[in-house]
Design goal:
- The protein is mostly beta strands.
- 10% of the residues lie in helices and 36% in strands.
- It has helices at residues 91-104, 153-156; strands at residues 17-18, 25-34, 37-39, 48-51, 56-60, 65-73, 76-79, 83-84, 108-113, 116-121, 126-132, 167-168, 171-172.
- The strands form 2 sheets. The protein has an 8-stranded antiparallel beta barrel with strand order 2-4-5-6-7-9-10-11.
- The protein is globular.
C-alpha cells in the first residue's frame, strides 16, 4: 500500500514581533543560525541569557558565567562589554563560548516569535533563537544532560589537594 500524501501545513508561520521590554526575563539558547546552517549548542552545555530591570544582562556561556550592560531601544539591542569568569573547559566548549560572547556583543535586533526570543546579530548574518528558561528544548535540539550534583562536605572530607596553578589578572602562575 502507498503511504498517505503529506498535506502542507495550513497554519501560517509565526512572524517575529518587535520586543518592547526584556526586563526580568530569562532565556535558554535553542539554536544558532549562521552561514546557512542551524545548530544547537554542544551536547552537555547550556547557554542562558537573563535580562534584569536595571539594564544588566547575565548568564552562562556554556562553561563560564558572564554579565554586563544592555540597552533596548525600539527593537534595537546593544549588549556592552561583558565580564566573564575564567574557568577552563574542553576546547570545543571554549570555542563555542568565545564565539557566542563575541556575537552577543554585536548590535542587532530583538523580536519575539511565538514564545521564543530571536536576536538577529552581525548585520543579520547570525540568528540566536532562545526558549523561555525552563522550557523544553526546541525540536531537533538535544536535551541537556542533568548537571552533576554539587560536592558536599561528605564527598570532600578526608581528601587532599595540591595547588598546581593560579590564574589571576591575566597571568598564570
Amino acid at each position: 500500500t502507498a503511504a498517505p500524501a503529506v498535506q502542507p501545513s495550513t497554519q501560517p508561520a509565526v512572524q517575529p514581533v518587535p520586543v518592547t521590554s526584556l526586563a526580568n526575563t530569562s532565556w535558554k539558547l535553542a539554536t544558532v543560525e549562521a552561514l546557512g546552517a542551524s545548530n544547537a549548542p554542544l551536547a552537555g552545555t547550556e547557554i542562558t541569557l537573563d535580562f534584569s530591570a536595571d539594564g544588566q544582562v547575565s548568564g552562562s556561556a556554556g562553561c563560564n558565567r558572564y554579565n554586563g550592560p544592555y540597552k533596548l531601544e525600539g527593537d534595537k539591542i546593544t549588549i556592552g562589554m561583558l565580564a566573564t569568569t575564567m574557568m577552563m573547559c574542553a576546547h570545543d566548549v571554549m570555542a563555542q563560548e568565545q564565539g557566542y560572547l563575541k556575537l552577543l556583543q554585536t548590535p542587532g535586533t530583538a523580536a519575539k516569535q511565538g514564545d521564543n526570543l530571536v536576536l538577529t546579530l552581525d548585520d543579520g548574518r547570525t540568528v540566536f533563537t532562545y526558549t523561555p528558561a525552563g522550557a523544553a528544548p526546541a525540536a531537533g535540539a538535544p536535551a541537556a544532560p542533568a548537571a552533576p550534583a554539587a560536592p558536599t562536605a561528605s564527598t570532600l572530607s578526608n581528601t587532599n589537594w595540591k595547588l598546581v596553578s593560579v590564574d589571576a589578572f591575566g597571568a598564570s602562575t
